[in-house]
Design a protein that fits this description.
The complex is a heterotrimer, with one copy of chain A (243 residues) and two copies of chain B (186 residues). Chain A is mainly alpha-helical. Helix content of chain A is 58%, strand content 5%. Chain A has helices at residues 2-12, 17-27, 37-50, 56-77, 92-119, 143-159, 172-186, 191-197, 201-216, and strands at 188-190, 220-224, 231-235. In chain A, strands 1-3-2 form a three-stranded antiparallel β-sheet. Mean pLDDT of chain A is 71; it is low at 1-12, 129-139, 161-168, 225-229 and 238-243. Chain B has 186 residues and is of the alpha+beta class. In chain B, the strands form two sheets. A three-stranded antiparallel β-sheet of chain B has the order 3-5-4. Classes of the chains: A mainly alpha (243), B alpha+beta (186). Chains in contact: A-B, A-C, B-C. Chains A and B meet through α1, α6 and α8 of A and α1, β2, α4, α5 and α6 of B.
Amino acid sequence: METTESYQVRLEIFEGPLDLLLFLIRKKKIDIQNIPIAVIAREYLDYLNRKEQINLDREAEFVLMAALLIHIKSQMLLPREEPLLEGEDPRRFLVNQLVEYQKIKVACALLKEREEEQLALWTRETLPLLPKPGEPDLAEVSLFDLAETFFLLMKRKEKENFRVVRGKSYSLEEKMKDIIGALEREKVLDFLEYFSRQETLEGAIVSFFSLLELIRARLVIAIQEQLFQTIKVWLRRESPVRP
Amino acid sequence: MAPGLKEVIEALVFVSLEPLSLEKIKETLTDHPPDEIEKNLRELIGDYQAPGRGISIIQSGGGYVFTTRREFDPWVRRFLKIDRKSKLTPASLETLSIIAYHQPITLSEISALRNVDSSYTVKTLLEKRLIKITGRKKSPGNPLIYRTTDRFLTTFGLNSLDELPTEEEIARILGEDKTDEEKESS
Amino acid sequence: MAPGLKEVIEALVFVSLEPLSLEKIKETLTDHPPDEIEKNLRELIGDYQAPGRGISIIQSGGGYVFTTRREFDPWVRRFLKIDRKSKLTPASLETLSIIAYHQPITLSEISALRNVDSSYTVKTLLEKRLIKITGRKKSPGNPLIYRTTDRFLTTFGLNSLDELPTEEEIARILGEDKTDEEKESS
């Protein structure tokens, strides 16, 4: 529960550590080019402290920023024999990042206005009537579409229990042994992970078909709860035990 | 006459996904008397019947719908031909993706992977110069083998075939949901 | 003026589901001089700007497209039973702005600019087809690179990336903010 809440806090209030930092800088009316790092680091830590729960997974970026601020602060406190040159200011990197981020925030606000305007306009979403029925809808495709299409096709093939073996470098038998071996060691296999570990596409495809063979031979149980979710594989015993 | 009623009806006929029935208009515009609605609809249709219009509203399939005028059909067809030349159908995309990842490949291998005779889509892709014939396979029947072209690479912004997204990359993008859910439920 | 040219253009803009570019109109109507086409297109747009219309032709995404008029948005929503079209989340908008201004850009560059792991929002934007993968960067690891799509342009009513808010506009707004703050603190 807390995880979801803190996630929402982050989403709705601050998009990330830079957003929070920018907020604090504006609140204190600080010149972004000359940030009093001690002040802002304290403010930042105060904010993190006020939040009752910080989920490290979710808020890692916020914590990382706190570490950076403390690091810069310590660097600035170090006694130096000679004053720092402009380019050596330990804040430089952060300032540059903030300046760029600030521009993006403004662009965001401007784009948001445009989005609002467009939301009130409605275009037609159906093809107009033509004397003859049209061809299927056509769309411009990107590389992602191309790759996604192929991999979804491969997934569909798998459901059809279709067997294609191409290339001589991968043997179905060896892959099947490999899968069984992995199952004996690990009990449960995350197939997507296994699939991703394959070095070549053909290796990956053969591993898919090996899995199919194993299912068909009733040697393993495989479960995929939803499309795109991983397939979990167990060895089939007399009485299969599901975790 | 209620001001703006005709315009509202025009907007509704326009966005409707199917021929818009009079009943549906009345259902939406409950604050207008039905006879006002009918009157304005008739006027709207009349407006589009005036000369000098390229589109009109016809009654079809139990409702009212916009259509291009019959006399402009030749231009519309010419346009659609040009417009669609540059795009791919889902079938072409599927075929192209198989050739991209499995090349060199024969027509029967493509058809086997798609479960569909793919000679027509292969022909279309050849015409679009996205694929080419690069020889014959040394197997019974010596079938032609296909590969993608340089034009294919430029179309998809690739420098070489090695740059095609890998299974890992696509899985990572498509699988992002999963890890998020896992994180949240943990 | 060629009789019927305006009507033909009206029919073409209407059948095109996507914004129809001037080039495509010219490509279709090769038998008409380009300046005649432009003149008639302007007239057509003018016709729809007259009062008493529920739809109009706007320029967006590098072309011309029919849309309902802004003032009828409430009726359209009532009719389609849609409360509001879904807006982009702040995270998506931020990521999208970064991609728009810095394209072509890799995932790790996006995450670095936001200081937040952005793989999830990038995936969402890919699914919404607001961005696309267009190849790989020639750098260690050859990461995939992303660009905005035509749908991005139409979502924000832009005709090209040149219409994105400029550096000067952004600087001016930042400057105004500053003077506001100075006023407040003085």
